[in-house]
């Protein structure tokens, strides 16, 4: 009986103690919400990073998948969660930068509702084509598009996806047009591209690199600022003569707005350490991801640039995906 | 020769102690979650993904694969015993399997499912080993136009699923199509018929509808007249199929295996169609179509073989092309990526140990399943004799857990409850839910492929007739429709029902 009393007293003590002294953070498992199904890019990023974070935080970090509505369902839940550092979000460029310019009613505002922690990783997109497609480089593609307006099919992983918007950006920068063919995710789009049912597509490098190596897809250009070491022969968009089509797919970590300063500091430190550890870095580079591990300040600045850039593309292309 | 040396390499890999152990854990776990209503392989594999990081890649994939086909196996058990199809592929197994169980033939139905699945699994594994690359290339021939025509064929065939009024069947299919419209339109990104609930903006999950309409509807119906249900369980006859049964099920198993192996290769939901297609085929070629829906053993043997064959061959596009044919395969690709293996055509050449080890392990896993399941049948059959007022709360709880595990959302559980009420109403109105489920599955895919095909063809509808595979399927669909609607056939149908009376 006495032991029980002592125990409950201790429990109450901890309950009162916890919020006042966040310095003890974390005292219980941390939940990381991934607003997409398991197995995707956000999920992979979250799982690889959190495995390492557990070591420095000394508490389990649990990844929970809450898919739905292009990631806005899970992101909305994080926005409403308590800012105590026990709920984090790992989301994509779509969640942070594209949904906000595409949808009128969103259950979160990426700038107002989140404490942005870090851009974890990024991967360049690549412009790939079916091997039988007539154009063999970007210049030939632009000429072909100009001769055949509204003829060439651009497969994408969905209406309003980053590859859809990259295609729109490409048309705007080159003054061409094509037919946008959306799919449910990247995999079926790549399948149809290999099968020759669609002509070209912008895809994440990691998703198509093996198909390029096997000769099932033709690599026309990378949308990065420099050539990729795995494909040194493929020019960047800028080298191919098209400015302003530099697009990365990125994954970033955020928490509900209003984290206590010491919790935020601890999380940032743990995140950077995990992302920069050689084995995590190596695993990411194996799948074509490049570790960014930016500071929260850099993330904020980068996010406002991304939002305003995609806003212009969406408005110029009259792209709508209304809720 | 090369195949044999490859298989030898696979045997060496799969027969190591640890890989055998992981294979066994995988199929055991798979059977368990398959038997539990609602818990599907997708959720289980997603939960177990982190656990596999510590394993060598071959063992990890062997275990995950075991969970997948083990669940296909276990799923039919619940479908037969309590009319709860947890997977889209076991919907048709429930049709005749549950009727058999009601007639006291649960053991025979379960054994039929187990033997059919084993045979199909063996054949499909051989196919996988010998023909994987050329079959994968065939799958690439399927573009949006071909898929659309395949779905049309599937939808027309789904009418055959019904054994009651034709009008009711059509009505239910259309209801399913309408339900399938809920969610985000793939082409425009516009959200349709969600009534402001963001939870359904990706559409309603199949498991929710199936659990609700079949599972909960059945429970409510059974509670209404519990006495009839207890009678049924007392008269269990023979656990093993009789010699006559074996004669009856040999051909359906063969046909189901061929059909399932072919459809399983198609990445765009082909495997899902396999069991439906097999059922339709069996009912069409049977001399006693009137027995279907009333406990025909062919109606269990064909679809069960087809869905297991499809489950095996759906690995072909994943292993040879790096293309996931369903959500489970997408997770397997995720697991490979986490292990530092880039899925794609190079897996076969660069990771022969993984490729062949996995293939051989699938056959061993199938053998495990057979050995594991045949003795278990006696136990399962006794499960139905558990008084229903003990059984149904457990089923309810498992359904709720299973549905929750899909998206970690309580909303889905409420939605299942609504579908449960609907399911009860359907029972009262003599409307069978199976055609509705098929409409629900096929409708959105059909729309997606139709619009994509039209988009790529720049609005030229002749694309469906110009492409040979597509045209062939449309012709078969037309013939099938004619036989359904031909007045003479219809007459026969009605007669058949009156006989059943």
TrEMBL record, chain A:
CDD domains: PBP2_Bug_TTT. The keyword Signal applies. The keyword Signal applies. Keywords: Signal. It comes from the Bacteria. Residues 1-22 form the signal peptide. It holds the Pfam family TctC. Belongs to the UPF0065 (bug) family. PANTHER family: BLR1237 PROTEIN, TRICARBOXYLATE-BINDING PROTEIN. This is Tripartite tricarboxylate transporter substrate binding protein. It comes from Microvirga makkahensis.
UniProtKB/TrEMBL annotation, chain B:
The keyword Cell inner membrane does not apply. This is Tripartite tricarboxylate transporter permease. The chain crosses the membrane at residues 15-36, 48-71, 110-132, 166-183, 203-223, 257-279, 315-341, 353-380, 386-404, 411-427, 469-489. Pfam families: TctA (PF01970). It comes from the Bacteria. Keywords: Membrane, Transmembrane, Transmembrane helix. Residues 20-438 form the DUF112 domain. It comes from Microvirga makkahensis.
């Amino acid at each position: 009986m006495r032991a029980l009393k002592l125990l409950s007293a201790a429990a109450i003590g901890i309950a009162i103690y916890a919020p006042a002294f966040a310095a003890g953070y974390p005292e219980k498992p941390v939940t990381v919400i991934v607003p997409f199904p398991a197995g995707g890019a956000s999920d992979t990023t979250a799982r690889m990073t959190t495995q390492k974070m557990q070591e420095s935080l000394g508490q389990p970090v649990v990844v929970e998948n809450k898919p739905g509505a292009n990631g806005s369902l899970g992101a909305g839940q994080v926005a409403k969660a308590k800012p105590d550092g026990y709920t984090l979000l790992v989301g994509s460029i779509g969640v942070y930068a594209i949904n906000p310019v595409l949808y009128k009613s969103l259950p979160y505002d990426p700038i107002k509702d989140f404490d942005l922690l870090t851009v974890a990783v990024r991967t360049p997109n690549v412009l790939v084509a079916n091997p039988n497609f007539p154009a063999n480089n970007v210049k030939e593609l632009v000429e072909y598009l100009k001769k055949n307006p509204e003829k060439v099919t651009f497969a994408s992983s969905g209406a309003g996806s980053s590859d859809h918007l990259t295609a729109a950006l490409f048309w705007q920068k080159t003054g061409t047009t094509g037919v946008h063919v959306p799919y449910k995710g990247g995999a079926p789009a790549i399948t149809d591209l290999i099968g020759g049912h669609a002509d070209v597509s912008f895809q994440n490098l990691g998703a198509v690199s093996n198909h390029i190596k096997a000769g099932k897809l033709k690599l026309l250009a990378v949308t990065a600022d420099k050539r990729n070491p795995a494909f040194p022969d493929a020019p960047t968009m800028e080298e191919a003569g098209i400015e302003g089509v530099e697009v990365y797919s990125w994954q970033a970590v955020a928490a509900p707005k209003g984290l206590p300063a010491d919790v935020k500091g601890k999380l940032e430190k743990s995140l950077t350490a995990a992302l920069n550890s050689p084995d995590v870095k190596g695993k990411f580079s194996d799948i074509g991801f490049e570790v960014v591990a930016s500071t929260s300040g850099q993330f904020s600045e980068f996010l406002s640039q991304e939002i305003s850039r995609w806003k212009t593309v969406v408005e110029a292309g009259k792209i709508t995906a209304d809720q | 020769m090369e195949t044999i040396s490859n298989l030898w390499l696979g045997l060496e890999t799969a027969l190591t102690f640890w890989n055998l152990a992981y294979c066994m854990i995988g199929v055991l776990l798979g059977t368990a979650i398959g038997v539990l209503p609602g818990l599907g392989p997708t959720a289980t594999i997603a939960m177990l993904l982190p656990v596999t990081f510590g394993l060598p890649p071959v063992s990890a994939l062997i275990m995950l694969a075991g969970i997948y086909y083990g669940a296909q196996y276990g799923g039919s058990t619940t479908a037969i015993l309590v009319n709860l199809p947890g997977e889209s592929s076991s919907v048709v197994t429930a049709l005749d399997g549950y009727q058999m169980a009601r007639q006291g033939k649960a053991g025979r139905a379960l054994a039929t499912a187990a033997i059919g699945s084993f045979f199909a699994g063996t054949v499909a594994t051989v196919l996988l080993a010998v023909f994987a690359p050329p079959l994968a290339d065939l799958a690439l021939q399927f573009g949006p136009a071909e898929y659309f025509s395949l779905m049309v064929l599937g939808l027309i065939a789904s009418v055959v699923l019904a054994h009651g009024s034709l009008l009711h069947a059509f009505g239910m299919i259309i209801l399913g199509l309408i339900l399938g419209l809920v969610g985000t339109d793939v082409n425009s990104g516009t959200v349709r018929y969600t009534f402001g609930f963001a939870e359904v903006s990706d559409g309603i999950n199949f498991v929710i509808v199936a659990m609700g309409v079949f599972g909960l509807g059945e429970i409510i119906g059974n509670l209404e007249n519990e006495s009839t249900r207890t009678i049924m369980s007392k008269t269990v006859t023979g656990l093993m199929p009789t010699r006559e049964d074996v004669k009856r099920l040999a051909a359906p198993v063969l046909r189901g295996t061929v059909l399932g192996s072919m459809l399983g290769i198609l990445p765009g939901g082909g495997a899902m169609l396999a069991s439906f297609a097999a059922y339709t085929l069996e009912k069409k070629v049977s001399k006693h179509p009137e027995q279907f829906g009333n406990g025909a053993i062919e109606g269990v043997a064909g679809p069960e073989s087809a869905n297991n064959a499809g489950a095996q061959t759906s690995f072909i596009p994943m292993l040879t092309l790096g293309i996931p044919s369903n959500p489970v395969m997408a997770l397997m690709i995720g697991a490979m990526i986490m292990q530092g293996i880039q899925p794609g055509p190079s897996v076969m050449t660069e990771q022969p140990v993984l490729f062949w080890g996995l293939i051989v392990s699938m056959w061993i896993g199938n053998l495990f399943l057979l050995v594991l399941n045949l003795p278990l049948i006696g136990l399962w059959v006794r499960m139905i004799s558990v008084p229903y007022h003990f059984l149904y709360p457990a089923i309810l709880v498992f359904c709720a857990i299973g549905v929750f595990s899909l998206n970690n959302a309580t909303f889905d559980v409420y939605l299942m409850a609504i579908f449960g009420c609907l399911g009860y109403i359907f029972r009262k109105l003599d409307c069978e839910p199976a055609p509705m489920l098929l409409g629900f599955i096929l409708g959105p895919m059909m729309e997606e492929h139709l619009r994509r095909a039209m988009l790529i063809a720049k609005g030229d509808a002749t694309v469906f007739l110009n492409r040979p595979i597509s045209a062939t399927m449309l012709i078969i669909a037309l013939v099938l429709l004619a036989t359904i609607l031909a007045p003479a056939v219809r007459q026969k149908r009605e007669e058949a029902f009156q006989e059943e009376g």
